[in-house]
Amino acid sequence: MDKQTTIDQLKPYQQGMQTHEVKAKFNLDRIVKLASNENPYGCSPAVKDAVLSAVNDLEIYPDGYAAALRTAIAEKIGVKEEQLVFGSGSDDLIGLICRTYLEPGTNTVMAKPTFGQYKQNALVEGAEIREIPLTNGYHDLDRMKMAIDHHTKIVWLCSPNNPSGTVIDKQALYVFINSVPDNIIIVLDEAYYEFMNDGDKPHLEERLDRYRNVIVMRTFSKAYGLAGLRIGYAICHASNSKKLNAVRPAFNTSSVAQKAALAAFKDSAFLEKTVTRNNVVKASFEQFLDGLGWQYEKSQTNFMLVHTPVSGDNVFDFLIKKGFIVRSGEVLGCPNTVRITLGRQEDMLQLQACLQQFDQQLKKERMTSDN
Ligand SMILES: *Cc1c(COP(=O)(O)O)cnc(C)c1O
């Protein structure tokens, strides 16, 4: 298929409803947005000063190399500065990776369901998409391996996976990487890295001398709470960062985003607090769902994929009228689920009351129809 035909068939990213739209449509005072895995606790207070200081130099181009941020991250995670590539969010990096390694006649392997931007960007480059269904909610590495052939250029691994929240076992991951020919790029998207249990983190950044074909992606959008500023980074062997930096637009991260990210990165106390609060909320929401008898995927993120007794759209419709925006799994390729970002405890308690009410109504309706 030629490029224009492919692009004509693509749909722009379908974002969740915006808060002001929902407010107006349902005549609500307050909305709790639990649809995009944003940080309900905001961001580090140090970010505000950093942003204000950046305001004095807005007429100046940013440092295209992001030197200050680069030094801080490289030092902290123990890689060479040249091994980092910055992007306007990991979304930008996904596009960059596709543009660098894919072309018509190549193919790329990914899970299904997983983060939608891998497929979208790969299609733009004219690559064939090979989607391997999750097995019991987890990446099926054996089947992904079998899908690889001489034309495969990229394998996408999302861990924790969006929308399931599940993590790839690190031993299985090492075995997989060792078994894949080293001319094939393996992307590990760690957008939720900070939320993972420490013992489950694969730390591929420490093995890039051996795993030259691995690209790890992280972002400031989720745990650091900077989704609105658009900044993320890739960690890889220098042979790949050299290519990606050559393809990258020179000024793809703004001066404001770089300064904010640096302030956020240095504030480990805020990050820790976010993760701790998230885990408390997660444990209590899991307990609630157990009580309700609804199944869910085991998440190491700030969201949960919850299996619902009816279509996810029905749950979405019920909740939105109450002021909660969640993501119906129907649009994410997971029928009969909703993906719920873990919000603040007080909001989650109200959400739980609504879910309880929904479940009771459902049981009542089913009883009446049985009689
Ligand atoms: C949110 C998300 C991203 C995109 O993050 P940005 O850095 O904001 O572009 C990438 N991958 C996954 C799996 C995500 O959930």
UniProtKB/TrEMBL annotation:
Entry EC number(s): 2.6.1.9
Molecular-function GO terms, alphabetical: histidinol-phosphate transaminase activity
Family annotation (InterPro entries): Aminotrans_II_pyridoxalP_BS (IPR001917), Aminotransferase_I/II_large (IPR004839), HisP_aminotrans (IPR005861), HistidinolP_aminotransfase (IPR050106), PyrdxlP-dep_Trfase (IPR015424), PyrdxlP-dep_Trfase_major (IPR015421), PyrdxlP-dep_Trfase_small (IPR015422)
All residue ranges annotated as the Aminotransferase class I/classII large domain in the record: 31-348
Keyword Transferase: yes
Cofactors: pyridoxal 5'-phosphate
Pathway the protein acts in: Amino-acid biosynthesis; L-histidine biosynthesis; L-histidine from 5-phospho-alpha-D-ribose 1-diphosphate: step 7/9
Record flagged with keyword Amino-acid biosynthesis: yes
Modified residues (N6-(pyridoxal phosphate)lysine): 222
Pfam family, one: Aminotran_1_2
Enzyme category, top tier: transferase
Keywords: Amino-acid biosynthesis, Aminotransferase, Histidine biosynthesis, Pyridoxal phosphate, Transferase
Catalytic activity: L-histidinol phosphate + 2-oxoglutarate = 3-(imidazol-4-yl)-2-oxopropyl phosphate + L-glutamate
PROSITE patterns recorded: AA_TRANSFER_CLASS_2 (PS00599)
HAMAP family: HisC_aminotrans_2
Complex formation: Homodimer.
Family: Belongs to the class-II pyridoxal-phosphate-dependent aminotransferase family. Histidinol-phosphate aminotransferase subfamily.
Protein name: Histidinol-phosphate aminotransferase
Taxonomic lineage: Bacteria, Bacillati, Bacillota, Bacilli, Bacillales
